[in-house]
Batch of 2 targets.
Target 1
Amino acid sequence: MKYKEEFFEAEKVAREVGIFLADQRTKEIELSVGRDIKLRLDKISEEKIIDYLSAMFDHGFLAEEGGLIGKAKKDKPYWIVDPIDGTLNFSRDFQMCCVSIALWKDHMPIFGVIYDFNNKDLFKGYVGENSFLNNKLLRYSNNNEIHQSIVATGIPSQIDLTDEVIGDFTEVLRSYKKVRMIGSAALSIAYVASGKFDTYLENGIKIWDVAAGVAILSALGVKYEIEMMSDDSVFLKAGNF
Ligand code: LIP
């Protein structure tokens, strides 16, 4: 494990920031544009993560609030941070939200950590090693029948919901037994890794929403396909698709 120290510290700061978020009572919305909202706490918690990790390591960042920070070059290891994935849920005290931190290089995951601070569940995976939930090996579903599968998906904040987009979306979902939209891409993927869901599909989701989850899936050997767009969004299919 070349980045063992980074892995350890990412878990530590994800837990610290998660505990901080779980304690917050006021969730002031700073900005609400289209289908997206930003809380003051998004910025505050992202700064906490960046300050902590940059005091220890030299890697740059790609972060939801701050974009590219420091010497983030994609051929060198760089952090991908989503301080609160599922911000809208968090703002309404709907407990599907988490802290998500990953280390990537050359468009490939090295490791990922997701902290579901409401349930005190820590998902983590290091590519080439394995993936864990609270230090117990994760087990994903081996259901390979699409019509028996539960697919998790979402409607990305930035997407233009034309009739054509909605049509394509329903066409894909029609093949599955059940569809779940929990409002947190990171947790949706963590639930594929832990066998609660069989599949995750989302077109236009931002890389920081899924980077840690992709690392966890990759470390676990779950099949996935990712297509990267130039605006930091991706088309991700994982699990049974
Ligand atoms: C959210 C995602 C959610 C997606 C939203 C949004 P945020 O992340 O995880 O699944 O549908 O568009 O991007 O903004 O709460 O970090």
Target 2
Amino acid sequence: MIERESLLTNQPLIIAGPCAIESREQILDIGRQVNESVVHVLRTQLWKPRTKPTSFQGVGEKGLPWIEEVKEETGLPVACEVMAEEHVDATRNIVDVLWVGSRNMQNYSLLNKIAEDNRPVILKRGMIATVEECMGAAEYIGKDRIIMCERGIRTGADAMRFTLDLNGALTLKHDYKMPVIIDPSHPAGRSDMVEPLALAGIAAGLDGIVVEVHNNPAEALSDANQQITPEQFHQLTEKIKRVYSAIAK
Ligand code: PEP
Ligand code: MN
């Protein structure tokens, strides 16, 4: 079992992988490629909350053996979003880090189910949630298991998909003493803005990033516009090192 504290070292936590697992070959290829850069946890999403029921919904439980294979091959721990209570049981002994998506941040029966588990949890901010509401959700599970994730909120600013709320993230970190990582992919909504948003989060002194990386973004079955390539991910990790050392005390 992985402890939350082992993910929170004195280096930024880097979590990377596709928006969704699409096939065995895809996750193995992406896992191998991101593992050539600095990465601490692989994103391995099996279930996808999609706006429309006709969109790709994820491969579901069928992908669990692929996750076991990519873990074995890369030696990396994995994180996976759970959308329903039964997913918590289905992922036990395979998925190291649970993850609550933005749309489920206030799904209290799911949060109560996760509270019975003991794995670390990435808790993504609801897209119109206040900082207080985020903390309420964290308390359902148990604050000492949570890594908060700022993934952008809906505001009047419509230049990109969502507004990355660094203010909220800094409040969670400094006033509520929570570890906070940034998801630069969903607020950007476009691959060319992922790097500057990620670096802004690191420059602000936050605890890491979770970024979408795909081996063929143009053909991705979800979030094709915002996924970056393994090469772009590599450049990003190099820049993160430089920004982090520039601000390190
Ligand atoms: C995701 O991480 O792919 C995702 C759906 O994010 P969010 O829950 O923040 O919308
Ligand atoms: Mn996505």
